[in-house]
Amino acid sequence: MKPQEIEDLSFKIIDKEAGDHGFDDAHWQVVRRMIHTSADFEYIKSVRFYENALSSGVKAIQRGCSIFTDTNMARVGIRKGEISSFGGEVKCMITDKDVAEKARTTGVTRALAAVDKASGEMDGGIYVVGNAPTALLRLIELIRENKIKPALIVGFPVGFVNAAESKDELMTLDFPYISNKGRKGGSNVAASIINAMAIMAAKQ
Asked: Which Pfam family is one of those matched by this entry (predicted)?
């Protein structure tokens, strides 16, 4: 089978097994791609969309926004063709020398230091967190202090220390986010959400 045939068949299987999932077509495109990436149907129940978050993300991509990720895995997993066609760029600052130096001298995580470095470029952009709760908590702090105004936060840190808690905190914001309840997440799932929106942006 060719790659597109495999993907199409996978989506047919997902649609069949998901049954009456309750999402409208646009939101289902996102959730279905999350399931396709993870083989985890629990995202149907755990995913959370802030009102108009999806349209905010799609419009930001169409404007050629910058997309920041907390891991290079997420950066690599995001489709560049659609993003670059609008003039956008996907960036990850986690391995930048000045980020590493700030983390070393201040005792914070590199993920948090990378958020601080990106803060000056983040207005109107999208920040994707697929691994580090410290990055998500820093984003929440900066949003509450009105220091950054991204178009969307995709918050899917994974793990046992502050992953679920940081997502719960994100979902208290009156601000566009896509996230989920619980410990599950990951860079691959976070990237799949951007990919779904990029495809939507290209088709509109």
From this structure: CbiC
Rounded Cα–Cα distance for residues 147 and 144 (Å): 8
Q: What whole-number distance in Å separates Cα of residue 141 and Cα of residue 178?
A: 17
C-beta of residue 172 within 8 angstroms of C-beta of residue 55: no
The model scores a pTM over 0.85: yes
DSSP string, 107-150: ---HHHHHHHHHGGG-TT-EEEESS-HHHHHHHHHHHHTTS---
38-63 pLDDT, tens digit each:
999 999 999 999 999 999 999 999 99
Look at strands 177-180 and 47-49 and give their pairing. antiparallel
Whole-number pLDDT of residue 146: 96
> What residue spans define the domains of the chain?
3-203
Catalytic option among 36, 59, 79, 183: 36
Superfamily of domain 3-203: Cobalamin biosynthesis CobH/CbiC, precorrin-8X methylmutase (3.40.50.10230)
> Is 194:128 a contact under the CB 8 Å cutoff?
yes
pLDDT category at 204 given cuts 50, 70, 90 is confident
Structural contact between residues 141 and 155, judged by C-beta atoms closer than 8 angstroms: no
